[in-house]
Amino acid sequence: MSSRRILVTGGAGFIGSSLCERLVEDGHFVLAYDSLFRGTESNIQSIRDHRNFQFMLGDVRDIDRLDDAVEALGGVDIVYHLAAVNGTKWFHEAAHSVIDVNINGTLRTLELAMAHEARYVLASSPEAFGEAKQQPIQNGNEMTFTDPSLHQRHSYGASKYLDEIACQHAVREGLDVRIVRPFNAYGPRLLGDEYGQVVAMFFNAILNNQPIEIHNGGEQTRSFTWIADIVDGFYRAGIMDMSLDGSSLSGTALNIGSTEEVSILALQEQMFSLVKASSWARPMPEVRYTEGYHGDAKRRLPDCSISENLIGWKPQTNLIQGLSAMWNQLS
Q1: What is the pLDDT of residues 27-72, one digit of tens each?
Q2: Can you spell out the DSSP letters for 86-115?
Q3: 313 and 256 in contact (C-beta within 8 Å)?
Q4: Separation CA 173–CA 164 (nearest Å)
Q5: Residue 104, Cα to own-chain centre: how many angstroms?
Q6: Total domains present in the chain
Q7: Which band of pLDDT confidence, cut at 50, 70 and 90, is reported for residue 109?
Q8: CB atoms < 10 A from the CB of 8, how many?
Q9: H/E/C letters for each residue in 182-220?
């Protein structure tokens, strides 16, 4: 496989940095473009000095700076667009910024890809389905959003819905676009502060003996997917020229997620059991039950049959294996 010139927006973020590592390891020329709003330079430390890697600080809405990134690469063959404002607290506290960055960043990077006739891979989200009343989540399901006067959570999901619309429009204009929906990725670099996500937040609470909050009784379910599996899905979606059956991948939306559905309460219990079985000698933190956020989805389970059939992707890591690997690195 020939080397590609690849721009990764959000390349210093949780998923983006791991994707950059995979791409560099496989011989591609990679530029990670990131504002460092949520990403960190420490995430890309392992490849920072690699001859095939560059980092550029920039806002994904800044088309001039994006042009500079392409110039630094010497052209661009693939754009992986992962830059976005994510994190549940941000959806409620900064809905305007979520909408602005997520939609306008996608429009600018799509325009960039069109100008250079580059393949484009969008990091979408299962939240693009809104309330996701049909499970498992699959292409063709209704995308349903509730009254915005009730809550602002859907600032994120609706932005991803519109991102997908913009991508499908670009497909009709002739651009090679693939859409990836990662389901609850987790791993050692996942943010664990109050603006982070649940697996990392629980581990962070254990490490610092801080209370763990379980929202809405912990009955809501998720499908947690190990970072290496997520990266493999993104990699295949972007690097493969055609699907396994020889058809075009342009316009295809791919769910990348574990089909191992677990409640948040069961997740907390599994994590406590895992930590207790390790050499960790400190007591488990207090568990508090709180109301949580409005608009939180009750279930999130993917149908990944399209991903398996078209790009040969299946998750390789079960939840206990992934949690154990993450805990071993964190502790």
Answers
A1: 999 999 999 999 999 999 999 999 999 999 999 999 999 999 999 9
A2: --HHHHHH-HHHHHHHHHHHHHHHHHHHHH
A3: yes
A4: 14
A5: 18
A6: 1
A7: very high
A8: 29
A9: ECCEECCCCCCCCCCCHHHHHHHHHHHCCCEEEEHHHCC
Rounded to the nearest angstrom, the gap between the alpha carbon of residue 180 and the centroid of all alpha carbons in its chain is: 9
Q: Which phi and psi angles does 170 have, rounded to 5°?
A: -65, -35
Per DSSP, what are the bridge partners of residue 33? Answer: 9, 56
Residue 284 is given by DSSP the state: P
Both structure tokens of 103:
């939609």
Element (H, E) at 249: none
Instruction: Output the CA–CA distances (angstroms, integers) from residue 162 to 155, 207, 304, in the order listed.
Output: 11, 39, 22
- Dump the DSSP string for 54-72: EEEE--TT-HHHHHHHHHH
Assess if residue 68 is contained within a domain.
yes
Q: Which of 85-94, 208-217, 236-245 has the highest mean pLDDT?
A: 236-245
CA 255, CA 240: separation in Å to the nearest integer?
Answer: 16
Q: Each residue of 90-106: pLDDT tens digit?
A: 888 999 999 999 999 99
CATH of the domain at 129: 3.40.50.720
Task: Flag whether 274 is in a domain.
Answer: no
Residue showing tokens 């602002």: 152
Tell me the whole-structure pTM to 2 decimals.
0.97
Q: 101 lies in a domain?
A: yes
